[in-house]
Design a protein that fits this description.
The structure holds 2 protein chains of 2 kinds. By secondary structure, chain A is α/β, with parallel strands linked by helices. Chain A is built from 4 helices and 13 strands. Chain B has one domain (9-50). Chain B starts with 8 loop residues before the first strand and ends in a 6-residue tail after the last helix.
Chain lengths: 218, 56
């Protein structure tokens, strides 16, 4: 769990609030891939007026919520290796077919976490440059999905901006991010800079600029 | 072909209610299907040609 207790940082929206903002922006009947971690929360905030079809890159379309303990089946897991369920109308497919869905541009939205997002939409979200983790399906997702949403805290644990002029970490994709949802604001990536779609009601644009590298505007 | 095409129009003999498919039986998931037309008694080309049908 991330604990935000660095100095000078304002308290932003809770994770559930960020997740519900994303959930409200996903249209009825869209095909969506949610990244491991914080983005998984989005599925808990989908309103009853719409059906979202979740894709998991290990070969599942129509993925359902976490099963009850007595219904866990380790042959039915998501890309994060966690037990899931399949909803009526869902289907299983080969790993290669699953990536055909991604690379073929059939996934409407993917929601991913981020370490850095640059002003031109570059995303770094898989490696700090050291250690074991590998990029997984994220590189395919950002290249193939029609819309790439990022869900993240606005600042790192050390209090540094995650929205930057230029990424310093290895990229997941170049110029791929459409919109960023942080605890401070909802921001579109545009040619003119970070465009504020919505700002946390407790914060000013001036403050947002001080915690963001690169021009923010409304 | 559905996977490659920008538009896919599927002719089916029987259109069933949503959510009624067995997940193990699905060959082409709905994500690849854009349009569906139901024709319950389609002309079978082989039979039609045997009966003398010719393409104009």
């Amino acid at each position: 769990m991330t604990k935000k207790n660095f100095t000078n940082a304002e308290k932003g929206w809770e994770r559930g609030v960020i997740a519900s903002k994303i959930a409200n922006d996903l249209p009825h009947a869209s095909y969506v891939n949610l990244g491991i971690g914080m983005p998984e929360l989005v599925s808990q905030h989908i309103k009853d007026d719409r059906e979202i079809i979740y894709h998991s890159e290990n070969g599942l379309l129509g993925m359902g919520p976490t099963p009850n303990e007595n219904e866990i089946d380790f042959d039915l897991i998501n890309a994060g290796k966690k037990p899931v369920t399949i909803l009526p109308g869902g289907s299983f497919c080969h790993h290669a077919d699953s990536f055909s869905m991604i690379r073929g541009g059939h996934i409407d939205y993917c929601v991913l976490g981020a370490m850095e997002v640059s002003i031109n939409g570059d995303l770094a979200n898989w490696s700090t440059g050291k250690g074991i983790p590998a990029v997984g399906g994220a590189m395919d997702l950002v290249a193939g999905a029609k819309n790439v949403f990022v869900m993240t805290q606005h600042l790192t644990k050390e209090g540094k901006p995650k929205l930057v002029e230029k990424c310093t970490l290895p990229l997941t994709g170049s110029g791929v991010v459409s919109r960023v949802y942080t605890d401070y604001a909802v921001i579109d990536i545009t040619k003119e800079g970070f465009k504020i779609v919505e700002i946390n009601e407790n914060l000013s644009i001036e403050y947002l600029q001080t915690v963001t590298e690169g021009r923010v505007y409304q | 072909m559905c996977m490659a095409a920008k538009q896919s129009l599927i002719q089916v003999r029987k259109l069933i209610e949503p959510h009624q498919t067995n997940p193990e039986n699905v060959i082409t998931p709905g994500i690849f299907v854009k349009k569906i037309i139901e024709i319950d008694n389609p002309i079978i080309e082989t039979n039609a040609i045997e009966e003398g049908m010719i393409y104009p």
